[in-house]
Amino acid sequence: VAASILLIIGFTLFFNQNITHQSGFGEQLAVLLPDGSEAILNAKSKLYYKKGNWEKDAKRIVFLEGEAFFKVKKGKTFTVKSDKNQVSVLGTQFNVNADSGFFEVICYEGKVKVQNSIASQIITQGQAVRSIDSSFEEWKLKDRIPSWTQGKSSFKNTPLIYVLSALEKQYKITINSQDIDITQRYSGGFTHNNIQNALHTIFDAMDIKFTFKDKDTIELSN
User: Fold this and answer.
1) Per-residue pLDDT for the chain (222 aa), expressed as one digit of tens each?
2) What phi and psi, each to the nearest 5 degrees, are found at residue 81?
3) Buried/exposed code over 173-200 (b: 16+ C-beta within 10 A; e: otherwise)
4) What is the pTM of this model?
5) CA–CA distance from 125 to each of 11, 68, 107 (Å)?
6) How buried is 39 (Cβ within 10 angstroms: 0-12 exposed, 13-18 middle, 19+ buried)?
């Protein structure tokens, strides 16, 4: 009986074991999933899945905190979950950006279904959808792959708070923004290899002043 109990516990622990992949500041991390699908994590992002689901039931479910570009092999439904949001596909290429209160999906190939707690939306190649506080925003694009995989972060009418978050993740800095309106929208981008250029590109265009309080802390003002 004791041996049987240990065996059951062992199987339970095995099937519930999380396999976790996490990238650091300014880092990209390529992940090969058990079915041969690929995920590239952007800076300060985390992806994990339950090992037993993939090996026993072939449930292709991953959990994401941050941003990742997926190249999914055809097969059973592949699902990306983040908080109350999820993306479901069969075989396609798409980008997911999951931040606090922010969920953005861009489809580069095939078709994906985006869901949150109150609505769902199907998008195809060249389409994008964003959920901010559960409401959907849509737009179109011509890019074939995410710009961040080539060293530049791009934004389309994005609330400034999420642009600042991307800056912090890429350059390992802290940005104090209590004196500005972080709900204002930004369209444009910044490169990942020069912090001064990145800051000027964003803040000069928005008439925002930035000051280094130390080498890792920046304060914003109007």
Assistant:
1) 555 554 444 444 445 689 999 999 999 999 999 999 999 999 999 999 998 888 766 789 999 999 999 999 998 899 999 988 999 998 899 999 998 889 999 999 999 999 988 888 999 999 999 988 777 899 999 999 999 999 999 999 999 999 999 999 999 999 999 999 999 999 999 999 999 999 999 999 999 999 999 999 999 999
2) -115, 145
3) bebebeebeeeeebeebbebeebeebbe
4) 0.89
5) 41, 17, 5
6) buried
Two tokens, residue 98: 């999951």
